[in-house]
Amino acid sequence: xxxxxxxxxxxxxxxxxxxxxxxxxxxxxxxxxxxxxxxxxxxxxxxxxxxxxxxxxxxxxxxxxxxxxxxxxxxxxxxxxxxxxxxxxxxxxxxxxxxxxxxxxxxxxxxxxxxxxxxxxxxxxxxxxxxxxxxxxxxxxxxxxxxxxxxxxxxxxxxxxxxxxxxxxxxxxxxxxxxxxxxxxxxxxxxxxxxxxxxxxxxxxxxxxxxxxxxxxxxxxxxxxxxxxxxxxxxxxxxxxxxxxxxxxxxxxxxxxxxxxxxxxx
Length: 266
What we know:
alpha/beta, two-stranded parallel sheet
């Protein structure tokens, strides 16, 4: 049996826990079984969260794989589909040309196509058409995702990126909601009891710190005036856009003396 390598690639970090690698590996293994190929231990190369438009010289896995190929190891590697090799026609053609110069053979498992065979004009045309289709599919997907993100931003104010402190848990949101209530409707007294008097950011920060409420800076950090200020203004900004927030929070999860922070259930 002939020894070959397997090359796998997923584009985004969100795909690392999906079935992308498993699906590609299964397709390649079935292809190898029909061809009499086998992939040895250490013969799988996974490109994790690397776009198909990145040139092969900037891909760690493909660079390592090509450096290990040659006499005594393997001169062939398999990809599930041409779009796993690249999602850009020029990137794909440059990688294939580099492989041909090094006498490396590339097979696409899904269609049983030798991507490095340039002797047959028809095969070259098919390979380049696969590259064009991969690039079109990628660009079309990017366009759809961009439109979806813009729609979500219009409806909810944000779509992606790091979550704010109050979005990390229902408990944080309850605290943030109460901060708005204190500032808008009344503050807290110096003895720590809820009251309608003081509305300063500093006073609220002291109250939260005294009641051991975890701050945006961390569990062991005190609340500061700027913490309260930032939470308040983010909540006010979000209130200007229609958005559903989770409100449920188990009162037993609150620190002692903070039961009054729980907002009423709708």
